[in-house]
Amino acid sequence: MSGVDITVEYKDLSATDAEQLSELIRCFELFRERNERYQDLWKQGGIEDSIHHIRSKSARVIWASTHLSLAQQVEAIDDPQDLVNYSVFYMRNLLAARGEERGCRAPGCRHLDCDSYAVLAHEQDDIG
Fold first, then answer.
1. Whole-angstrom Cα distance, residue 35 to residue 40?
2. Are residues 122 and 103 in contact, defined by beta-carbon separation less than 8 angstroms?
3. What is the pTM of this model?
4. pLDDT in tens, 64-104
5. Is 42 exposed, middle or buried (0-12, 13-18, 19+ CB in 10 A)?
6. Residue 71 CB neighbours (<10 A)
7. 40 phi, psi to nearest 5 deg
8. Picking from 1-5, 17-21, 115-119, 124-128, which range would have the lowest pLDDT averaged per residue?
9. Packing angle between helix 15-38 and helix 78-97, nearest 10 degrees?
10. 24-56, pLDDT tens digit by residue?
11. Residue pair 64/72 in contact by the 8 Å Cβ criterion
């Protein structure tokens, strides 16, 4: 698989814009680290699995906010980062189900990568 170089230039960012972008980049870095290990495993579960993980990560973040000190919450920063990443997986799976992302070129297929989707992927094409 070949890489893609992406360069984005944002001009006139406010301090809060720059901070937001910095945190999103940290989420992306965590995604890359884990995706290197798990190789797009998130695609196999589709929309339903993304929702499951969003619920799970949300519960962890909420629990941490009431049971952990601020320092401990910072130590567990990967939970809210995962929440952001699973939200993106949800969006990508949702768009793929509606045929709005590039991916499989099979006639009538609306999936990102059929080889990594669950066996029932093509049987569930009526999502959209």
1. 6
2. no
3. 0.71
4. 999 999 999 999 999 999 999 999 999 999 888 877 555 45
5. buried
6. 7
7. 65, 25
8. 115-119
9. 80
10. 999 999 999 999 999 989 888 889 999 999 999
11. yes
Secondary structure string (H, E, C) spanning the chain: CCCCCCCCCCCCCCHHHHHHHHHHHHHHHHHHHHHHHHCCCHHHHHHHHHHHHHHHHHHHHHHHHHHCCHHHHHHCCHHHHHHHHHHHHHHHHHHHHCCCCCCCCCCCCCCCCHHHCCHHHHHHHHHC
Contact 104, 112 (CB under 8 A): yes
Provide the pLDDT for residue 125.
47
**Measured on CA atoms in the order 43, 48, 49, 54, is the torsion positive or negative?**
positive
Please give the Cα distance from 87 to 106 (Å, whole number).
Answer: 27
Residue pair 79/60 in contact by the 8 Å Cβ criterion: yes
Q: How far is CA 117 from the centre of its chain?
A: 15
What are the structure tokens assigned to 57, written together?
Answer: 């990560």
Q: Please state, in angstroms and rounded to a whole number, the distance separating the CA atoms of residues 70 and 29.
A: 23
